[in-house]
Amino acid sequence: MEAGEGKERFLRQRQVLIFFVLLGIAQAASEPKHYSVAEETESGSFVANLLKDLGLEVNELAARGARVISKGKKTRLHFHRQTGDLLLNEKLDREELCGLAEPCVLPF
């Protein structure tokens, strides 16, 4: 009887361990990405390739409905679904966007 209880306890401990390992992996994979763009970078400039950064295929981006969502009416970034490229829609002016705030961070 004790051998059966020991095995059952071991299996429960293993399940808990696996749960926490999977939870840690899921949280690590869902971390937000941060990108930097120099002030006065021209419109149409390359920012990042989301396919490479997220480790996805083109068809996965389309299936997930990938898009850029911005606060306000201006869309400062353009996402090209066929290539995964994230591009600037317009030249960014730091003073206009952030004033004197340090650092100047725009959430998307």
TrEMBL record:
GO biological process annotation, one example: cell adhesion
Signal peptide: 1-28
Protein's UniProt name: Protocadherin beta-2
PANTHER family: CADHERIN-87A, PROTOCADHERIN BETA-2
Record organism: Neovison vison
Domain Cadherin N-terminal: 34-108
Keywords of the record: Glycoprotein, Signal
Record GO cellular component, one term: plasma membrane
InterPro entries attached to this UniProt entry: Cadherin_N, Protocadherin/Cadherin-CA
Record has Lyase as a keyword: no
